[in-house]
Amino acid sequence: MDLRPSPSSGRYESSSSTKKPYLSKSVSDANSHNQSLASILNNPHAGKSDGWWWPTSSSLPVVPEFAPLNPLPKPGSDLTRTDFTPYIASFSDPFTRFHDIQTHTKSTLLLDDQNGENALVACLREVPSLYFKEDFQLEDGATFKSVTAENLVVQEKLSQYLDVVELHLVREISLRSSSFFEAQGQLEDLNSKIVEGCKRIRELKETIRLLDTNLVGPARKLQELNLKRSDLVALQSKLNLIIYVNQALSTLNLLVASADCAGALDVTDDLQHLLDGDELAGLHCFRHLRDELATSIDSINSILSAEFMRITIQEAGNMDAAITSKFKARATIAINGEGHEAKLDEEETSNFRDRLLPFVIGLLRTAKLPAVLRIYRDTLTADMKTAIKTSVEELLRVLCAQPLDSDFVAGERVVDTDGGSSSLASRLRSLPPESFVQLLKAIFMIVQAHLARASEVKKTIEWIICHLDDHYAADSVAAAIALGAAAAETASEADGQITTFSQFSPPSNFSRGFSIHEKGNDVTTMSHLSRNFRADILRENTEAVFAACDAAHGRWAKILGVRAPIHPKLRLQEFLNIYNITQEFITATEKIGGRLGYSIRGTIQSQAKAFVDFQHDSRMAKLKAILDQENWAEIDVPDEFQTIVTSLFCPKSGTTGHGDDDSAVTATSQTEVVQSSSDPSMVDAGVPNKSHNTEQSDSTSTPPDSTAQSNDTNSRRSNPRMLSFGGVSYHMVNCGLILVKMLSEYIDMNNSLTGLSSEVVHRVVDILKFFNTRTCQLVLGAGAMQVSGLKSITSKHLALTSQVISFTYTIIPEIKRILFLKVPETHKGLLMLEVDRVAQDYKLHRDEIHSKLVQIMRERLLVHLRSLPQIVESWNRQEDTDSQPSQYARSITKEVGLLQRVLSRTLHEVDVQAIFRQVVIIFHSQISEAFSRLDISSQQARQRTYRDVQHLLGCIRSLPSDSKSNPPNWGQLDEFLAQNFCAEASQ
């Protein structure tokens, strides 16, 4: 215990003598650190807290306030001791007291140290060390033995040892007697103060007893009574709550039994509010209340779901029977799908919305609307499939009982081998095209009725969710959406488990709106949850209608797929009826569903492509057969083909051929092409081609006037009816007309099947290539002599072929223009190159035919010129008795005249001039070269040669040509005549 000043005497006292060394050490330390102690003592304002050696405040002198020090002199001024007198006077008294205390303490400590050392030495010297051990105990056997039994001297001196220790203790006590008595005095003061304190405590306890009896007691009793009253009131409230809950459960059961979902939800709201609070905590009788509420809410959801399904689906079931009955009564449906949608009027729509509104709100409150919409989607899909299947079965009984059309092959009906009723697929395949279209129309109407109902349900739900602004139930719907959002969030947090309405706090009254216990969620979070829940409902609502459309597409595609082998074999108009009603069905259903139906689009496109492929293959086979049977004889062009050309390729010009535009049928008419044969009275007058195994007959020479007479005779014959295009008429053969008919059918397919325009263009290119190639093989390649039995390929055949090729080449640009109106831009580039390449092939083919005609005439000329040397040699041996040209000259002019008549009657004037221009050039060069190699020495030979050259030049002059020379067709033969026969010319 530290040294503390005594309050009574003002002296220092110590609580233990063991603290003196510490005091001595502290003082000695203070002496050893003079510099630190001096800094403390020099403080003129030191208080009692600055040193533990100061007396208490009662014995300390009052420290005077020191005057402020004079300002320090400037550097260099003189300082004297008198200048520090005020400072020294301020701490001289504290320093004097400290010095006295320090001197007294040193002397006391020195004395104590000496006495303690002497006393300790004396004790250690006189008393054995055994008695000073820390573990000295007489109970210990060894210690007792060493003290008593073994050392009797020690036992005898034990009292002496005690006296020595007592002596030293008395000395030590005497040294500290002043502090001891001072402490005893303080203890007596403390005892008196304790007695006084106990007295005051007794007085205080008596006062408290009086207060407790007179004041606190009644107040405490009042408090106890209040607590008891509160407990009784709480008990009464609990009993009333139990009665209320019991009545609510009974009411809830009655409301659920009577299908009053709105009232039942109100009751569940109140009970759920009680469960979420603490009112029912600890009531054992209601331990199953939460499960009972969950069961009731499940029952309510079942009722709401069943009513929702009844209103949306089941009430629409009578429409199928009505449509089927109507179809059976009329046995036909003459309307298409457009403009006959089963729409509700404004009043029916309003009634339907009012009926559906409470059930939708109830499902929103229970957060079951998305799940019910998913069930509704599956049910609607199944109902759509069932309705279509049932309707097909009912309608097939009527359609299969009808007699077959005359143009429908009875063998195509598929009947079971057992003679019984055929399967559904077989009966569908056995339907004629017209009946099948009627079946599709009936299905179209049934599907439209179902989709219209589904669309009305979709619009009603969207109206309730998004557009119920000014309606009386707008607040209820908004609150119900918020509740559903909270339930959806709770369900997501429950790892996909189904969330019942008991997992959140609903409002207490349905008609007055709702309020949500947010449970820590702020307004922003609830708004976000509401948007997500609303989006979920709208998505499921849209998916339901789309699923119904997709189911209808699948059934329609399945029905089309059953007849997939039949549709490509139909006529164009029959297939177009099926294709068009399918396109109308796709458009109408996609408009309701809001998405594209890829399955049905793929089915109809694949069947359309199969139709195009089959039609193309059949036309290719037909065209090949017709070409192989073609005799390449000119025929009269029926009015039908002129109408086709006029309507397709000349839409803006008047009819230039035969027939009247006002009464003309369109190119899409289904009139069969009459394959006319050539007129038997028309005798082939063409020049035979020796290279084609032709037979050449000897004929007598014909003078020029006889040639003119022959032309007049032929001109009087009736000209055949030709095919006109662009103001130009063309002679045609049977295969050319068939090609025109086929091209018109391809154009009809292109205009009707717009999605397959690229495929149609490919097929047109194929058939044009085939016709050009096969025609070239049959005519230029002489293949017709083997396949069609022609004895020879004459110039007439070549000319007619040139006309057909020229006509086709002329209409190719118009065909390209018409076809490419429907072709996508991405495919036009390559297809145009293909069409242009085909057109170039036709032009080359025509030029080769013209070259072949020129080659025929050149070969005939060379044949006659080979006999010229023998003829000239005979002229030199015999006299000239004949005034007529030679036989070879007459033969050449006869064959040239015959070729001229054939080509002039068949080919265009421009083509005839181009051909004979080359013939004239060949005649001039070959004849002049042949005569220049001959040895004409006699006079009679010169005269006969001059006569023959004149005859040949007369024939050359009469040939058609675009030469501008005078005389016409002047050339090398004229020069030869002028150089070698000037004398004969003058005679």
Automatic annotation (TrEMBL):
This is Vacuolar protein sorting-associated protein 54, chloroplastic. InterPro entries: Vps54, Vps54_C. It comes from Nicotiana attenuata (Coyote tobacco). Residues 729-860 form the Vacuolar protein sorting-associated protein 54 C-terminal domain. GO terms for molecular function: syntaxin binding. Residues 665-680, 708-717 have a biased composition (Polar residues). One of its GO terms (cellular component) is cytosol. It comes from the Eukaryota. PANTHER family: VACUOLAR PROTEIN SORTING 54 (PTHR12965), VACUOLAR PROTEIN SORTING-ASSOCIATED PROTEIN 54, CHLOROPLASTIC-LIKE ISOFORM X1 (PTHR12965:SF2). Gene3D superfamilies: 1.20.1280.130, 6.10.250.860. Residues 1-30, 655-720 are annotated as: Disordered. GO terms for biological process: Golgi to vacuole transport; retrograde transport, endosome to Golgi. Pfam families: Vps54. Residues 1-17, 697-707 have a biased composition (Low complexity).
